[in-house]
């Protein structure tokens, strides 16, 4: 046991306990102050990010890092910086996820039961190299009343360190304990923390399936995993061709390195010589590599004129194609004979993240939505919509590929649990039962937390 | 890998997939039929239970089984049988926990997002020797749309076997697959099933802390543990004496073998010579053994006249006293100097099940409710109210001592997750962003599931 890890975990639990006695306004204040600290340090943070990017480019050039990872590192790209800060404000402006009553019953006269949302406790969040995640997660943890221990990817160390400093400076200007949000640097610390189930309430690993499974294998603490996104699109027999092309291209091309990008395209076999060639030509023209099963491969090879890039961009699929998160301009393709077969393929091969159907048939849409066992089941819409911002949560702590507690994009609601508060006046269970008093279980309308 | 375990798990997952395409009315039908099967076989089941009890009595007499366990075995005792059947009807009558929309937003014109409750999938439930639990859990699983694999305690094998046969006979009369509810007999099968995270979605172990921790250590599958109930009562400085005596006695004596029975009594030190002696005399008169810290021990030894049973029933506590689930007429007692110290003691020693405060001070009640990190935080009420029936859930699958997904008594709501359904018309993410379309995130009032 690393004593440093234990010190961190004990401090986090103590910070959580102390924070429970502060009003939630203090946490809003912390978010405002942290945003100001980030703005004040923008130049230094982006300079550190440029350093991280430079080091990463060397790794990419040497073939030791993927281009997809490099792209995720860049905090200055597009609207990333502004989105990050806006995310803090958005989270601060969202309604408090704690203190809400989701069940209230009068068990009997003067004996009232309330189920009240409350923070989970101490979160251990392990994430990839996207540096803005430090800020996203700190904001979500603070707003939801949880203490957090954060471990980012080593590739963004310089950026993450300055972001963490800004967060710490912000917290120091509030009544919240300085150890409310802590960052750690090494995998060894993570290993030690995974043993401390008395102090840590939830582990949130974001990354590969291997990372998530490794953590699940090595801790008793509940794990809310954000694993691979192996998202599929199914082109149903009744698919509208224009919608199919639009949805497939956006799902694949809008941001290929994202977990909600399309990795598998499933074609109803009735479309092999009609819609499939049209979709394939559009994908190939956009430089997408296709790993095809025999039927979809044969359909392309039989076309006249031959599609652009056929020889360079179309290859036979292997069984592994359908369980691979490409995160690049590669797409696995297969044909199936029925909607039921598409549902079965998805349930057996997808990562239960987000899958979409393109169809004009309401019955097919309903069967797909009922039958596909994934966090997101979409109809005639791009898989890229699977995202906390887009869903309206302000920001997200991850996209849960598990089913317990929270599923899909996880915002504030996924970071709270609840407790039952029962208020009586000396009430005892022995007064109830056959021949004695009966419970009324009368709903209390408009109940608010009694504390 | 036991091939038998894999066969069971694969069959359960297939049964779940098939059930997803049936209307929920089929599941209600199954519950009605199962109840009738149980009624028709009552005599045979109670005869088998008598056999189990006879075998258990031999174990108790030989000192190999606790009396508490024996008590839990008896299906004919009091209103247990009728409660069990009533539980099936109550669960059948409860509203469907699946298909409910908990979040609905128009992301933009014609692009609608729905969060819809749905079953979790395949449950593996491991429980103690209480035979009625087979029926409770089967009813909850069926009503909530989950397939289940059940493993009961070996002490109730004869009873559980007949209960399972009745359930199977019932299922066979419906469209639900015969493998929707399966029972297994051996720990070896449990071990094999714990490796099958592709087929099993949730493990629900009910039993000792050791059982729950052992399972948590040996599976990647999420665990909803029902571990020890180490419940505490705190008598605050302002406690009303009559309420204190009533609440403490009921919490301890109403059903000492239950997980929601009182195990630790915490006394504000201002009450050591006033309320404490009164409570202690009542407990001793009821044959309760007290394991006392020095302050509470000294207070009793100083009393004139000496309390009944002082020499036989009052002993010094050890540190282990405060982390022990006695499940018998033994109670651990300590004095503390403040409300804050009581909260800290409970957070460090209780099993986060249910804790109660006796107080007339609203501020103390609020601080206790905010500060105590347990599933149930009660004010002037017996810990024995922590129960799914009493909370109004119809029945319960267990009382979760974890914080994730479900906490406290777990009824139907704890057995569902949700999925996000997004319905568009060829909508793509690339159309949104700075300088392009914006999301509206308009709330859809009164939304119902679109499938």
Structure description:
The structure is a homodimer of 451-residue chains. In chain A, the strands form 4 sheets. Chain A has a 7-stranded parallel beta sheet with strand order 10-9-11-8-7-12-13, sandwiched between helices. The first copy, chain A, has a 4-stranded antiparallel beta sheet with strand order 16-2-1-17, with no helix packed on it. The two termini of chain A are 39 Å apart. In chain A, α6 (132-144) links the parallel β3 and β4. Chain A has 451 residues and is an alpha/beta fold. Chain A folds into 2 domains: 3-227 and 402-415, Aldehyde Dehydrogenase, Chain A, domain 1, CATH 3.40.605.10; 231-391, Aldehyde Dehydrogenase, Chain A, domain 2, CATH 3.40.309. The mean pLDDT of chain A is 93. Chain A has helices spanning 3-19, 25-40, 42-61, 67-73, 80-93, 132-144, 157-172, 187-193, 209-217, 241-253, 275-285, 294-301, 310-313, 339-349, 362-371, 388-391; strands at 101-108, 111-119, 122-126, 147-151, 181-183, 202-205, 231-235, 262-268, 289-292, 314-316, 330-336, 354-358, 376-381, 398-400, 408-410, 416-427, 442-443. In chain A, α1 (3-19) packs across α8 and α14 (339-349) runs parallel beside α15 (362-371). The radius of gyration of chain A is 25 Å and the shape is globular. β16 of chain A pairs parallel with β13 of chain B. Chains A, B: InterPro entries: Ald_DH/histidinol_DH (IPR016161), Ald_DH_C (IPR016163), Ald_DH_N (IPR016162), Aldehyde_DH_dom (IPR015590), Glu-5-SA_DH (IPR012134), GPR_dom (IPR000965). Chains A, B: Catalyzes the NADPH dependent reduction of L-gamma-glutamyl 5-phosphate into L-glutamate 5-semialdehyde and phosphate. The product spontaneously undergoes cyclization to form 1-pyrroline-5-carboxylate. Chains A, B: GO terms for molecular function: glutamate-5-semialdehyde dehydrogenase activity; NADP binding. Chains A, B: Pathway: Amino-acid biosynthesis; L-proline biosynthesis; L-glutamate 5-semialdehyde from L-glutamate: step 2/2.
């Amino acid at each position: 046991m690393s004593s440093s890890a234990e010190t961190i975990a004990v401090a986090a639990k103590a910070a959580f306990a102390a924070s429970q006695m502060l009003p939630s306004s203090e946490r809003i204040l912390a978010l405002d102050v942290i945003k100001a600290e980030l703005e004040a340090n923008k130049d230094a943070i982006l300079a550190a990010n440029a350093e991280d990017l430079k080091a990463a480019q060397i790794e990419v050039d040497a073939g030791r890092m993927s281009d997809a990872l490099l792209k995720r590192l860049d905090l200055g790209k597009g609207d990333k910086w502004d989105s990050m800060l806006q995310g803090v404000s958005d989270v601060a402006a969202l309604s408090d996820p704690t203190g809400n009553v989701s069940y209230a019953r009068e068990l009997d006269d003067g004996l009232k039961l309330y189920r009240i949302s409350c923070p989970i406790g101490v979160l251990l969040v392990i994430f990839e190299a996207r540096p803005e995640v430090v800020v996203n997660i700190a904001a979500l943890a603070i707003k939801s009343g949880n203490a957090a221990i954060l471990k980012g990817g080593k590739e963004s160390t310089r950026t993450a360190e300055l972001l963490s400093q800004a967060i710490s400076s912000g917290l120091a200007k509030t009544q919240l304990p300085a150890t409310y949000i802590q960052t750690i640097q090494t995998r060894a610390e993570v290993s030690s923390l995974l043993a401390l189930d008395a102090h840590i309430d939830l582990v949130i690993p974001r990354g590969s399936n291997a990372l998530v499974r490794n953590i699940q294998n090595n801790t008793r603490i509940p794990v809310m995993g954000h694993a691979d996104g192996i998202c599929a699109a199914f082109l149903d027999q009744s698919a509208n061709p224009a919608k199919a092309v639009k949805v497939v291209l956006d799902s694949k091309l809008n941001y290929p390195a994202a977990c909600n990008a399309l990795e598998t395209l499933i074609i109803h076999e009735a479309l092999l010589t009609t819609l499939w060639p049209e979709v394939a030509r559009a994908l190939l023209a956009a430089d997408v590599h296709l790993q095809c099963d025999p039927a979809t491969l044969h359909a392309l090879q039989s076309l006249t004129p031959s599609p652009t890039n056929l020889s360079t961009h179309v290859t036979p699929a292997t069984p592994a194609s359908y369980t691979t998160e490409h995160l690049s301009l590669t797409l696995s393709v297969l044909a199936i004979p029925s909607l039921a077969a598409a549902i079965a393929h998805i349930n057996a091969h997808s990562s239960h993240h987000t899958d979409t159907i393109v169809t004009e048939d309401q019955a097919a849409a309903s069967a797909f939505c009922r039958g596909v066992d994934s966090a997101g089941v979409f109809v005639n819409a791009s898989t890229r919509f699977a995202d906390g911002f887009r869903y309206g949560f302000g920001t997200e702590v991850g996209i849960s590929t598990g089913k317990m507690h929270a599923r899909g994009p996880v915002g504030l609601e996924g970071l709270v649990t609840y407790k039952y508060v029962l208020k009586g006046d000396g009430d005892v269970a022995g007064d109830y039962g056959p021949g004695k008093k009966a419970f009324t279980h009368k709903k209390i309308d408009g109940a608010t937390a009694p504390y």
